[in-house]
Design brief:
0% strand, 79% helix, mainly alpha, 110 residues, single chain
């Protein structure tokens, strides 16, 4: 679950780093450096989610964690695409909530 939530937050940041999605979600274009920072943060979150998935809790093999992450990555991309398309104004809040929830789920062992 934490892999999906962190991937969702990452894809949200990457999407909000794009001109069109940034303007649709926030109502203004935003500075180029701000959008660049969002894209970089999204990439770092994807890397963090992969690193955490490769270190699953308990005696689960790392390969299973990475396979699960690949599925979460794809499903999260689809979910963010749907959110940016049909509810662009909610995308920043959903991404932030997913980040917090993903970190809390991971901290609690999920």
């Amino acid at each position: 679950m934490s892999a999906f939530l962190l991937c969702y937050a990452a894809w949200s940041a990457i999407a909000l780093g794009m001109d069109r999605h940034h303007e649709d979600a926030l109502g203004h274009q935003g500075a180029a450096h701000h959008r660049r920072h969002l894209r970089h943060a999204g990439g770092l979150l994807l890397a963090l989610s992969l690193w955490l998935a490769a270190r699953p809790p308990g005696e689960v093999p790392a390969s299973l964690g990475v396979a699960t992450w690949a599925v979460a990555l794809s499903v999260a991309a689809l979910a963010v695409t749907a959110a940016v398309t049909w509810q662009p104004r909610r995308t920043p809040a959903l991404g932030a909530a997913a980040l917090v929830a993903g970190l809390l789920v991971r901290a609690w062992g999920g």
